Amino acid sequence: MPDFALRTLGDQLINGLVIGNIYALIAIGLALIFGVANLINFAHGSVYMVGAYVGWVAITWLGWPLLPTFVLVAVVCAGLGLAIERLGLRQLQNQARIAPLLATIGISFALDQLVQIVFSPNPHAFPSPLPATRIALGGVSIGLLDLLIAGITISAAALLFAFLRFTRLGWAVRATAQDREAAQQMGVDVDAVNALTFAIASVLGGIGGMLIGMYFTSVYPTMSYGAMIKGFVANLIGGLGNVPGAVVGGLLLGLIETMGVALLGSTYRNLFAFVILIGVLVVRPTGLFGVQRALPPEPLTGTFVPSSQPVRLPPWLVAAALVAAVLLPFISTDPYLLQIFTSAWLFAMLALSITLVTGVAGQISLGQAGFLAIGGYASALLSMRLGLPVELSLILGAILAAAIGTLLTWPVFRLRSQYVALATLGVGEVINQIVLTWEDLTNGPLGLSNIPPLSFFGLPITQNAPIYWAALALLVVSALFQWRLMRSHLGRTWRALRDDDVAARAFGVSPDRYKALAFIASGLVAGLSGAFTAHMYSYINNETFAATTSILGLTMVILGGMGNMAGAVVGAVALTALPELFRPLADARYLIYGLVLLLLVRFRPQGMLGTV
Amino acid sequence: MRSERLILGKSFRRDQRRLTFGVFIALALALSACALPSPPPAQRPAEQPAAPTNEPIYIGVSGPLTGPNARYGVQWKKGFDLALEAINGKGGVRGRRLEYIFEDSQSDPKQSVIVAQKFVADPRIVIELGDFSSPASMAASPIYQRAGLVQFGFTNSHPDFTKGGDYMWSNSATQEDLSPALAEFAYQTLGLKRLAVFYLNTDWGKATYDLFRKHAEKIGAEIVAAEAYLPDEKDFRSALVRARDADPDGLVLISYQADGAQIVQQVAAAGLKVPIVGASSLHSPDFIRLGGAAAEGVLIRGQFSPEDTRPIVKAFVDAYRAKYNEEPDFFAAHAYDTMNIVAALIEIAGPDRKAIRDAFTKIKDVPSVIYGSVTFDPVTRRVSKPQFVDLVVKNGKFVPWDGTLPNGRG
Q: ipTM score here?
């Protein structure tokens, strides 16, 4: 039945193009901001969500027609973009690159939470005001909304292109993107350009949000994260900071994803998105439209890793902190407190592992949750299926996490800076998907239950204080391991690679091997943390080590001060304890958390224990 | 570098200041963490029989109030509040008011274990309810089991949940009951032979689907398409086109409210015109609000009918409508039932953790919206045989199904 197959293909093409158009709208905004401000804007997804809510309020509450609603969404989002730039980011301009990035994470927390408090966490129906008629085109049918979405994306892209190409202001934007200092010297008001960029990007994002609200007929406060990730991926496929690339990347992503779903089913949507991403990056490391420039001399120039030096902690302070940590169970028997610190120590191991690859070796990893998952599953399965003692399975789990994780990260090694960050995010997501779909091994979404508890030479560890000490001991061992590595020849080679990989190469250092060693060392520590967690929880499934854990881990590292072991521990304690401290605030808990994050960044841009 | 610092005294001082500041923050955090509002130590009032009688009895609830699952926590609260109004209106339990302390866990195991320790250490808490998702609930189970505090997982259908220990109990209907009933509804009652199934790819959806398929194939139905989707999926168009091409005569949704509504909204655009049958979890005004006109005619094998004349259902439905000005909801009904069971437990056992555990086998035939009446099986620590009632969405409401396939579908 060729007609039948053709109709299916046509329908799927349209589905893919429509969702691709939305991805493109988000990606254009991210590309603009990245191009001009050299910043990955994590708040972009929240602007998109606000745009959807403004549109929903105007249409369903106020009964506005479509056109003025678009204007309203544009105005509100432009204002929001300006506010984010002016209030959240401008002061941080001359600070380490890391600071604005963290600030956007804080802003995004706050905005998401604010909308949730105002409009409730429930999704709201957003019926499209357009008639539901569908135009039949030789067996394939297109809805009016589909056409509207395509029309808006194409015209927005065309307008933006004309603006950048033919207007003086557009030239100023491009000049700033090419070379900020040079533009400034030529008399371009770079602050104004920055603000303008945020306004334009936010308008596009907001309108994208409103369109997606109509397309999916609902708005909900958590819509931002997924959209942002897809925007990043589209952007990377096209080439970071490249506007036509963003459009093509968005469309390609939409099409390929949809075809993936058509072939294998919905569960594989993200798997497809990330496999495509990694594939594109391996073939063309700067994206499809990126210019193949000569390798930049310093891989971390312009990335969000700051050149922060750790604050030198006096040894007595470290020793005192360690003694206090060891004695904590004697000072307080409150299991609540012990659990907070047990969790904090386990997260500190995650943060240590991230600070090793990211801060020391310069490979920004956003996929560290994948190592946790491999460690957790490996140790759980070894102890359950093969009956290995838990002490042994923990160690084997850590080794397997290092081995498998590094192997899966291999394609990422030839990438640099931001590309590494988002490609590792992809690797983390791929690991998560494998856990979900390899049911014979992992039991799929049903997960593994009755994982045996931790034990020490055959004695099960089930009381709070011993669990606490065990976690602390593993943290100390991991920290010593890392400290030793950092002071060795290997550590110096990593730093050489981080600071100048061209020079390192000239001295005969093979980057791939040393990157692999960094990921192995980091994977051991992360895998151990994941394995410990699995036995402590007794139940894990694919949601236990969700991708957001990776971002949380990186936030801890950035907050503590990059490349800084004490900072990683302090960051982990802070981000584990703060949400608990704010518990009495109920719903507003994460709003305040976001604001505190913002303030910390404002006053400690190099991280709490970092210094320039 | 170091000599520079010595020369540039100012920058050195600044560094020192920064150091002091960093240390200050670290210390402040450590101190504030120690000063967390920790409950009074467990030794003191727990065993004191002479608690003042005007002091309420507290129930701990661990569940999502922020984050992606926040909506379910909000529904729980509605059900709890309704039940407590009635219970406390009649003078409470053993002369004391019943109250709950809801701690937000975002349904995230990282936080649910911490919340568990908080409850365990708080001697006022006599029983714990929740969490929502299996990873969050079952990660906390060892803590509750060790401390001897009942974890009453009232939405935990995961087959292994109650195997976590003798302090894990659940009144959630299990897939062993739900799935065959749904299969029989689609195949035998509605006569749909070729089924396309959409299921949520979580522990709940997957377990439900596996048992559904097994039973459906046993009784003679054919599953022509099965689409698993992740909880954050919004775009079902291409999956629906796939299902359409398999030429089914019925669409089965093993979904929650928001995703179920999303699917029915997109069915028409994919050109699929068959009757839609859903699991009881769709039973919520949210499904209808979000599904709009597309939800009309959707059939479900639900667990309670809003028109039911049994006093417990009538009391629940009337009070719900009066208080929240909307139709009752599946998760709220579960929460309502649960609070009534808790009241019955405490009535027998008094505010004592272990006695409450033992009371599960003593309570008999507690009136329930979902089950009619509840008696726990001491071996599985669950309730079996929920009742079923077939409902259809008509004019924006779930009403008992009158036996005809709705117009325009089929």
A: 0.84
